[in-house]
Amino acid sequence: MKTIIEPFKIKSVEPINFTTREQREALIAEAHYNVFLLHADDVLIDLLTDSGTTAMSARQWAGIMNGDEAYAGSRSYYRFETVLKELTGFSYVIPVHQGRAAEKILCSIVGGAGKVIPNNTHFDTTRANIEYSGARAVDLPVREGTQPEVIAPFKGNMDVDALEALIKEVGAENVPCCLLTLTNNSGGGQPVSMKNVRDVRAVCTKHNIPLILDVCRFAENAMFIKMREEGYANMSVRDIAKEMFSYGDGAMMSAKKDGMVNTGGFLALNNGEWAERARTVLIVTEGFPTYGGLARRDLEAMAIGLEEALDEAYLTYRLRSVQYLGEKLKAAGVPILEPPGGHAIYLDARRFCDHIAPKDFPGQAIVCALYREAGIRSVEIGSVMFGTTNASGEHVGPAMELVRLAIPRRVYTQSHIDYVIEAIVNVHERRHDLRGLRMTYEAPYLRHFTAHFEEL
Ligand SMILES: *Cc1c(COP(=O)(O)O)cnc(C)c1O
Hints:
By secondary structure, the chain is α/β, with parallel strands linked by helices. It has two domains: 21-50 and 311-455, Aspartate Aminotransferase, domain 1; 58-308, Aspartate Aminotransferase, domain 2, CATH 3.40.640. Helices cover 40% and strands 13% of the residues. It contains 16 helices and 16 strands. The strands form six sheets. A five-stranded mixed β-sheet has the order 2-8-7-6-5, with helices on both faces. A three-stranded antiparallel β-sheet has the order 9-14-11. Strands 1-10 form a two-stranded parallel ribbon. The longest helix has 20 residues, at 312-331. The mean pLDDT is 96. Pyridoxal-5'-phosphate (PLP) binds at residues 51, 98-100, 123, 125-126, 181, 185, 214, 216, 254, 256-257, 265.
């Protein structure tokens, strides 16, 4: 059979709300043209993020009922710890309520003024936590990673020569750790090859720098390795994931992604001294180390979700359904970042709206148009999210202007996706009518969440 189907059936349904174009015109204006400020009930198909939007399985919901809500030493914690130690091989496992809590705790150990922390591409909260600690966050993607139209198997890789050069420039003593994000979310959900993980490991070993993996989408990354990297076709995704983990000195994860839960995460470390300091911060800011700010039932759901994410029938369906959206858009002439990533399709806003300058936020114009057209919520990943203004008042944008359509796990069917394709193709046909925007309010950190805009 050629057709790859959803490897599940639906037991519980949730209605979605239809609105008229007129209503959406008013709603987007009230939200200051920032889709983060919309009420979710006014969104028909929500592709804002794949984070925490997963449909949990019957097994996970059963696990929730089985959760042991003891404050200390919960059975659910020990189940979670056992699953994670077996999967990752790391000695110390610290639960947290979501990924950025792990980032904050890590930064409280390794961050601070004068420190420099490289990554293939920092996710927005990772960068914010590093900068908030006073350290500098440096992105070192491979060249093809910033060229949306180039097709390559592992565009999420880190530029290993650039890593060497950075260490030489700032001194290894100022690089408290190196991060590597699998898959590279801000770089388009592109995978990192096993060879690249090994090469980065080698540079870190040479300079005695700990390597911490950001493994939000470790299962999708492992599946890409199985499909694309020589020598891995016959290995199980679980064993590939284990090999990836084996090159790290630790990992942090937002389990709202490949943990298949609505909230949760962890920081895993081999260094006992770091783990002790991390637990101290955890107790002050998150909770006792056997729950880390979560309900214990959440640990139970996470333990089950981490296993389900490695199911190869699920991963085949997952990667194929994202690729399907990309293929149809490309066939209709819509410019996308190629090849399709694991969790999302990214529209190339620079080519989509070549009449809108980066300083006028072409991606945000597309995001607003998709909401107006069909009630679809997407997110800008470009000058709104990462742009700054230099000393002479000029706009400095990131390498790419993207609009991300993130696909929640196990939530939407193929006809939902067909509807999304139709809407994007319609907007693309009328793209010359789109106008840029002006930002009228911004917060000092992570401005895209709360910014206000006016249409030009
Ligand atoms: C989502 C994400 C984070 C942050 O996790 P939260 O759960 O949103 O706090 C960090 N890194 C990457 C790569 C992510 O995708």
